[in-house]
Design goal:
By secondary structure, the protein is mainly α. Helix content is about 55%, strand content about 10%. It is built from 8 helices and 3 strands. Strands 2-1-3 form a 3-stranded antiparallel beta sheet. A hairpin with a 2-residue loop joins strand 1 and strand 2. The protein is rod-shaped, with a radius of gyration of 31 Å.
């Protein structure tokens, strides 16, 4: 009697590949984008309400200390944070080209917030305007000008929004949409056949009309 030894076939790269790899990457990028976008918008809005700079104005009665919040210096970071937050939500309401455009808007909102916050870090025009109003003289300026770190905190929030936008541009095609009739691949979900009750003649006739075997046999 001859014995035949089965030789195992070598595993291919396709067999070693993880079929859930793209889905896992999409879920991870989605979670990071949502976290960074929400936190970044909250940080930028919070930082815009804090004191960015302070100084002393010389008035007729002596010296007047003045302060300026981020919203007094520039309203751009807070406005772009709101736009970015809206774009982050809108990413899930659109698909294909629309999703890419909204993701780009999200990234641009973050970049604009960073630029506006950095430019406003050394801006003293808001304090000069307050000094001129307090002294009644347009030529009055601020002395002993100091700046806080809050503009850079706002820039950090904008950077988080920018990262969320970049993730949406790169991985947004793999993210789910709001439509409940679609799977993650975008294909319609197959309709499950209704169970047929053999004791109900009307169910048997409906199954026959649908081309189904009401007996359940092949």
């Amino acid at each position: 009697m001859e014995y035949v030894t089965a030789v195992p076939h070598p595993r291919t790269d396709a067999a070693d590949a993880d079929p859930d790899g793209p889905n896992r990457t999409g879920r991870r990028s989605l979670g990071i984008a949502l976290l960074f976008g929400a936190v970044g918008a909250a940080v930028a809005l919070l930082a815009s309400r804090q004191e960015w700079c302070s100084g002393i104005a010389a008035v007729a009665g002596g010296e007047l200390p003045l302060t300026a919040k981020g919203s007094d210096v520039t309203g751009v970071p807070a406005a772009l944070a709101i736009v970015g937050l809206a774009a982050l939500v809108a990413v899930f309401a659109v698909r294909r080209v629309g999703r890419v455009l909204v993701a780009a808007l999200l990234a641009l909102s973050g970049a604009g917030a960073v630029a506006a916050a950095v430019l406003g870090a050394d801006d003293s025009s808001a304090l000069d305007e307050k000094a001129a109003q307090a002294a009644g003289d347009a030529s009055t300026t601020i002395d002993a000008l100091t700046h806080t770190a809050w503009p850079y905190v706002a820039a950090g929030g904008g950077a988080l929004i920018l990262i969320a936008g970049i993730l949406a541009v790169v991985y947004g095609a793999a993210w789910p949409s709001m439509g409940g009739r679609y799977e993650r691949s975008g294909a319609p979900r197959p309709r499950q056949p209704r169970a047929v009750d053999p004791d109900r003649p009307e169910d048997l006739w409906k199954a026959l009309d649908r081309g189904e075997d009401p007996t359940g046999t092949a």
